[in-house]
Sequence to fold (284 residues):
Amino acid sequence: MPLVCLVHNDLKFLRSLLAHYRGIGATRFIFVDDGSTDGTLEFLRLQTDVDIWVSDVRYKDARRGRLWREKLFATYGKDRWYLNIDSDEYLVYQDYALKPLQQLLNRLELQGVRRLSAPMIDMYPPGPVSEFPFQGMDNSMPWEIASCFDGDGYVLERTKRFLSLSGGARHRKFGSEVELMKYPLIYWDDDCSLGTTIHKPLPYSRNFFPISAALLHFKFFSDYKEKTTEAVADKQYFAGASEYQKILNMVSKNGDVDFVYGATLTYGGPEELARQGFIRSVWT
Fold:
């Protein structure tokens, strides 16, 4: 099972990211590096199961990375499954510790499914973010530090193209309008395209399988001010990094951010997510 991932100064995630996805059955890691300067490339070059690609085109000009992903799918071969993620996203599904990806794929294929929908769940620490570092220098997983997430305030809407999900911690705190639904496990064939956004891949008819997995999404550790400032200055993200600018404006005003509120939940694994209604079991 090949995994495609884009990286830019993401060294702190790489040790845990590789450990997590190796543990659930990824067999080849295909990284596109977008001009990292923090040691990301040097670390990846030491990994025997990693292929590294670089480009003289930046992320924004590669249609926010979609051209890179589609080129890699063509290069590594069509008519096969891919894991398709960002460097701060960790896929979880019920019983993943016991039932690795190949069993999941077998289950999906029995049901005629070619794409697994999984919402991003914005994770955050249990207090002021500046007090919770994550450096990724040992075997710690990011959810051991950023262990919390919003328990309410989400809006799920079925459109003609996909299942649209909004809400979460960034929406509550910053008014962010980002789309949370993604499709990290995708069968790529001649009919597929990432279209105008990775959140609504083509053909649209494949985007409606019940939500049976989640992407734990990590943007908020003690270095978030530095990372947000860098993203705003780099202007590689959608609309000139406007969502990052919202975060920076709030931080500049308040000095720090604490996401904890009355409905905050503590992550207890995908089985707990299923009991809480965030995902369903793919096995039943």
In short: Residues 2-275 form one domain. The chain is about 30% helix and 25% strand. The chain has a mean pLDDT of 92.
